[in-house]
Amino acid sequence: MKDIFGQALMDYHNGNYTEDLITSTSISEEDILPLPYLFRSYHNMPKLEQQALALCQGTVLDVGCGAGNHSLYLQNNSFEVKAIDISKGAIEVCKQRGLADYELIDLLDEAKTFDTILLLMNGTGIFKKLCLAPNYLKHLKNLLNPKGQILIDSSDIKYMYQDDDGGFWLDTNSNYYGELDYFLSYKGKTEFNLKWLYLDFETLKELSNNIGLHCQLITKGEHYDYLARLF
Description:
Layout: H1 4-13, E1 21-25, E2 28-33, H2 47-54, E3 60-63, H3 69-76, E4 81-85, H4 88-96, E5 102-104, E6 114-119, H5 133-142, E7 144-155, E8 179-186, E9 189-197, H6 201-210, E10 215-220, E11 225-230
Parallel strand pairs: 3-4, 3-6, 4-5, 6-7
Antiparallel strand pairs: 1-2, 1-8, 7-11, 8-9, 10-11
């Protein structure tokens, strides 16, 4: 891993902002991911994220914390929150921004338990593939304190396979349509072989129920996205 995501966060935080991240997937063309958006305040967050933060209770684990926006908001509102990420640069930014508890660690290596676990900005993405999702969900369940909850968002990207006639060109013999190859580019460097998973709500609900978690739809966003609560 080149950690170009972390490098971009470090550049922006340290006043070296000269260009944005470029993203693309196996089914979409290049798009710009503005670095200022990765440092957004609570008031600039989507309503879905604001609602997730409003539902937090007790001790919180912020998974895939990035620049620490959600964790900082919670910390500033007297929550005990731990931020984790696999990006060294992201964790360094969290440190420099004043977070009290942060760690460079993969979710599957986390061992502490929490009252609320946050996975935002397509939180199901870290599952990578549909076949790996049950293992991640089981681990998340094990990290919950009694009466704990998981707040997670994702999108149903089936619309990206829709043709002009309203039909869908899904290959029933291929992998789940939400499994994507993800590419990230910054300042001439590209991160390859990144796997990213978008889960439709019904599939997330089925996977959750299979391991003994209830799955509640909290809200739908403006573009096929949703927030769910697992408990």
